[in-house]
Amino acid sequence: MGDLIQTIIAKYNYWIYITLMMIGLYAMIAKNNLVKKIVGMGIFQTAIILFYVSIGAKRGATIPILEHGHGEQGHEISSHMVHAVDYINPLPHVLMLTAIVVAVATLGVALALAIRVYNRYNTLEEDEILEQIREK
Amino acid sequence: MSQQYPALIVIVPLLAAFIISAAGWVNKRLCFPVAVAALSVATYSSIGLLLRVLDQGVVLYKLGGWDPPWGIAYYVDHLNGLVLVVVSAVALINLIASKKIIEQEFPEKTGPFYTLYVLMVTGLLGIVVTGDAFNLYVLLEIASLTGYGLLAMGGGRGPLAALNYLYMGTIGACFYLLGIGYLYIVTGSLNMVDIAGILPSLYQSKAVLTAFIICMVGVWLKMAFFPLHAWLPNAYTYAPSASSSLIAPLMTKVMIYVMIRLILTVFTPQFSFTILAVNESIVWLAVIAIVMGAVLALAERNLKKMLTYIIIAEVGYMVGGAWLGNRAGMTGAILHIVNDALMTLCVFLVVGNIVYKIKGYAFDDLKGLFRKMPFTMGAFVVGALSIIGVPPTCGFFSKWYLISGGIAAGHYGFVAALLFSSLVNVVLFFRIIELGYFEPFSDHHGHNHHPEPIDEAPLSMLVPLIIVAAGLVVVGMYTGDIVTRIIDFAIPAGIV
Amino acid sequence: MKVIGFIIAVLTGGLLIYATVDFPEWADPASPASMHVSPHYIEKTMEETSVPNIVTAVLADYRGYDTMFETAVIFSAGVVCFLLLRIFLRNAPEERLYRHVLTGVTIRIKRGGRLPYSEDFKRIDTLWTPHDLIIKTISRLLIPFIQLFGLYVIAHGHHSPGGGFQGGVILGASIILLAISYDLRTALRRIREKVDAILCAAGVFIYAGTGALCLLLGFNFLDYSALASVLHVDPVTARSHGILIVEIGVGITVMATMIWIYKNLASTGKYDEGL
Q1: How far is C162 from chain B (nearest CA, A)?
Q2: Which among A56, B96, B232, C66 is most buried, taking Cβ atoms within 10 Å?
Q3: What pLDDT, in 10s, does the model give residues B214-245?
Q4: Chain B: nearest CA to A11, how far in angstroms?
Q5: Over 70: is that where the pLDDT of A95 sits?
Q6: Which chain C residues have a beta carbon less than 8 Å from that of A58?
Q7: pLDDT computed for residue B94 by the predictor
């Protein structure tokens, strides 16, 4: 039991993000309304972004901006060494800046497609659209 | 400048896309020449790069001047080089062949269309040439977003089909991203060769196994491997001809390349084939894909949709061949990437020609077309023979390698599925050839009642088509060279 | 469909959680991700690029190639929205509504006629809501400061959290605020469509062009130390300046694309009336 509590405290962040991802995935597959699927897509992608960012955390470390760098002759070897343990991992943040932009772009394209679908079929519910297609 | 070929392949089309976009607002006639020039430079650079790789082995190019794994690096080896040449050549030929039909279908928006075309080719070239796993995701998203836009331009059911493709494609790309995240957690690196170096000590880890499964499922979603193929028929059928003849030959093949790259380079063959031991099951899935593709194609009365189901079967060939686990099967899969791109381009260009002249592609519209458009239908016959697998066209040779790989692995179900699919292809294509050749030409084509006679498609659409059809035979005759000089080096020595 | 979706979600979630058994703990300083590649970034950024903000240095220099394609993603999303939605209206809209400002009387003019511009009659949208004087005034006062802040965020990406993307979005949001608080036509008058589209392409072109310039000067693509000869500084400071140039390019593109996508979506391509 103590072991289980230990595991939960160590890894609960990953479990929460995976649960969020699965909520988004369920919405994308199971919902009927096209816009609800887009919302589910947003939840899915945001949960992946949170997952990545949590990889970079370090206990007791601060944000990856060098304090003493400001105002000095930048690139000369400064008198105090920079220790990697003092700053959190910057790489997941960089990757997720890219992923956020990609998510926004996909959202824009999905909305444009939904507007086109609405102009054609006058409804956003998938079952009504399939009925209209079958009738043609 | 030849040192910079790896960068030029991606940069020149990228810069050209921005120039085309601005030029589209100023003077529309500049767009096409700039696009052709950019893709020609890309083709030339990729051929030059392949010759360099054949000369001196793996080419390493460091972007930004940083060493890997701290910066992004390109590793170009034989597999990369071959697929690069195929992608750039197919895109260039298709651009030249589609000029007239783009101007017929979208007279006001040629600028943005060419921009998206060139951007998509940039994305595909970048996916093939990169050596960094996260860079692959970004380029995959460029290719996907531009693909959704290009496919949605077809009126009617186009936007809905593209929206469904968007949902499934986004799930696929996000699964790939998640898999790379899992690999990053346990290895700490994003560079493909670096990950392959760190992984052997971690083969027993559950996270690596899950990463492999999730990456594979994501890539299968994007290549329309059965049962994740539901988006492909609608998306490619209701698209404009220029888009479908670009995307159909290339997108699925590039995703097959990504899968092979993951199997061979990132997760080395020792992990993928020996430790994992799921070869049999995946090849059985491929068998089901081939059979379902063939059967569903039989049920269609619409030429374009029938061709899309054949694409699903071809994807099954390649996935099955790659997962057989022996050299012949992998050779067959890689050779089939090249051959299938050419074959699919050929038949989709034919459909483009038919649509340009007749504005329809149901079977009823095809009656008696042989006498009216002899060159187009002649090229269609060559493409059909290649898909069926008749020597000396290239389709025969890749099927030969796949079948010998299946026999060597003892997987007779795969061999049976290949032969069954060839027979079904014979039925499918001879049906069309019979309609086109033997039926009399009917004058009522639904909604066009124009009295002008239907004649052959214009030269700018015909000459590229004939070049591609001739290329099918030429590539078939040079198969021996391609296999011994390029593909043999692409497969690591560990596979027999 | 709901049952299939539920089963797929549960199975996938189960597989993913099963794999977390092998993960390092949360916030473990000795995890592989924190030990392998990132210490080099943290320790060597100052001496190699002289940019204190490590995230900006990694984003625009070490992994600058990714960022260029990310900007291309945003650009292509703008082009896709334009390609799909834009309808160039050959005929004028069927009817226009005008409101007399002093009395509040609305007149409707059919069959494409239009009133000449005058102070007394203002054109309103079909789905029109009364505009609040407070909102209009406050927005008009705030927008210049928002834009100033956006420029600050772009320029100070080296020393504080910020950079091209963040600043570009803030700048784009200022114009969208104008469109929401007044109406779409006001925002269209501020930034015309042609200018917007060319700005989009120009921003990314600056980014890729800087990289191509480095290529032409003999170094590898996006190797900013090549700019040392152009800018007459030493290679490390050249990297810092190169990062600033590409961030400006990114900011321009993101601003222009946000406005472009908003205009296309809000007016469903007609550029006539919208939110």
Answers
A1: 21
A2: C66
A3: 999 999 999 999 888 889 999 999 999 889 99
A4: 13
A5: yes
A6: 27-29, 34
A7: 94
Q: Is the pLDDT of residue A72 over 50?
A: no
| Reported pTM | 0.93
For the segment B159-170, the average pLDDT, to the nearest whole number, is 94
Measure the CA–CA gap between A22 and A17, rounded to whole angstroms. Answer: 9
Instruction: Give mean pLDDT, residues B430-457.
Output: 66
Dist CA B377 CA B375 (whole Å): 5
Task: Beginning with the edge strand found earlier in the chain, give each strand of the sheet holding C106-110 in spatial order.
Answer: C106-110, C95-100, C121-124
Would you call C48 an interface residue with chain A, using a CB distance cutoff of 8 Å? Answer: yes
- pLDDT, residue C226, reads 84
| B340 within domain boundaries | yes
The structural domains of chain A, ordered by start, are 2-62+85-135 (1.10.287.3510)
Q: Is residue B406 part of a domain?
A: yes
How many domains does the structure of chain B reveal? Answer: 1
Average pLDDT over residues B23-39: 90
Paired with B448 in beta bridges are B445
pLDDT given for residue B446 in this prediction = 47
- ipTM > 0.90 (yes/no): yes
Query: Inter-chain contact B141–A25, Cβ cutoff 8 Å?
Result: no
> What is the spatial distance between Cα B24 and Cα B35, in angstroms, rounded to a whole number?
12
Q: Is B122 on the interface with C (CB under 8 A)?
A: yes
In a domain, B151, yes or no: no
* Rg of chain A taking only CA atoms, in angstroms: 23
How high does pLDDT run on average in chain B? Answer: 88
DSSP state of C223: -
- Using the Cβ of C253 and the Cβ atoms of chain A, whether some distance falls under 8 Å is answered with no
Range of the domain at B419: 278-496
Is the CB of C86 less than 8 angstroms away from the CB of B141? no
Best CA proximity match to B168, nearest among B180, B154, B151, B184: B151
User: Which site among C7, C62, C69 would you substitute to test the B interface, given the most B Cβ atoms closer than 10 Å to its Cβ?
Assistant: C69
Does a structural domain hold residue B23?
A: no
Residue B54: CA count within 13 A, CB half-sphere: 16
- Cβ pair A41:B170 closer than 8 A: yes
Q: What is the DSSP string of A30-70?
A: H--BHHHHHHHHHHHHHHHHHHHHHHT--TT-B-SB-STTT
Asked if C237's CB is within 8 angstroms of A105's CB, the reply is: no
Residue extents of the structural domains in chain C: 51-89+131-266, 93-124
- CA–CA separation, B27 and B34 (whole Å): 12
Q: Which residues of A touch C73 (CB under 8 A)?
A: 101-102, 105
